[in-house]
Amino acid sequence: MTDHVRTTRRGHLATIELHRPEALNALTHEMVHGIAAALVEAEADASVATIAIVGAGERGLCAGGDVVGLRADALERGGAGARAFWRDEYALNAAIARTAKPLVAIQHGIVLGGGVGISAHASHRVVTDSTRIGFPEVTIGFVPDVGASWLLSRAPGELGTRVALTGEHVGAADAIVLGLSDAFVPHARIPDLLEALTHAPADEAIAAFAAEPPAGALAPGTALDDAFAGDALPAIVARLEAAGEEGAALAATIAKRSPTALAVALASLRRAARLPSLERALEQEYRVSAHVSLLPDFAEGIRAQLVDKDRSPRWQPARIDDVTDAMVEACFAPAPDGDLDLSGETA
User: Fold this and answer.
1) Cβ-based burial of 221 (10 A; exposed 0-12, middle 13-18, buried ≥19)
2) Phi then psi for 48, rounded to 5 degrees?
3) CA distance 289 to 140
């Protein structure tokens, strides 16, 4: 495999561990290849009944992709390396979704962006007390990907739209409400769960340790939820501003995000809602990622959040009202070096 992806076998369980704890297990291209190879190997091994994906360390499963490296590639090499990474990452997301054996993803701690991609498409998704799941892409001038448009466009009401546009992180109960997770197991019982998976079926093992999660904050069908409906971003912000203190706070949060990324993210979710499969959504996301990564906001957002860390991005354009339909549409055009084709990988 790779030093950052480790595999173990215990009984009938094959465990794939992301082992880059010093970087919150952020995904590199090498790690994507390692996870994909480990998945193929576990699928082919007749003695393996269940596969688990876990992250090393206490801080989280995975903080997403190594976006600082992707930014450097976009600035210095025209983004070819970033597009190669996304091709393989999105193919891995599709492979996880179609894995025939039970695949248990332990979504402990920080699970962001690409971390959701390697876990939320699994057949069994387990959250814990420490779970914080989210798609912070609009804070760095990017757009939720790794199948997020498919997942979030199918969340109850407009909760998926809210998570995509605010970039907020949610806990265990809200992750289950959103459809990103299935069951809550207290963090202290995760070792016991993994031990049970070595000999017991996944459904049985998870049921033995599952509990009611602490109360969450999200609920479909509320006035705030309804405010996120529709295709017009300025109208969404206006409805939030008129929806009381909490709505105004959400509008203020959105106002800090990249206007271009927000508009493209909204369009991505609305288009994904009409697509027939995860594979088609990933193919659309590849086009979007290829184009958005070459826009000024991608480099600027990562600079502000992760390089210089001044938290003061200078977005271009700076206002939501200045993002035109043509600018959004351009992000759905064919990718510079050819589109992603997952047609041969549909289950």
Assistant:
1) exposed
2) -90, 120
3) 13
135-160 residues labelled b (16+ CB within 10 A) or e (exposed): bbbbbbbbbbbbbbbbbbbebebbbb
Residue with tokens 């025209």: 78
- What's the domain range around 291? 5-341
Whether the Cβ atoms of residue 152 and residue 164 lie closer than 8 Å to each other: yes
d(CA 198, CA 80) in angstroms, rounded, equals 41
Tell me the whole-structure pTM to 2 decimals: 0.96
Helix-helix angle 244-255:159-166, to 10 degrees: 50
pLDDT tens for 108-150 read: 999 999 999 999 999 999 999 999 999 999 999 999 999 999 9
- How many domains does the chain contain in total? 1
- Strand, coil or helix: what is 101? coil
Contact at 8 Å (CB) between 118 and 105?
Answer: yes
Nearest-angstrom CA–CA distance, 220 and 193: 31
At 213, which CATH number? 3.90.226.10
Q: Residue 346: inside a domain, yes or no?
A: no
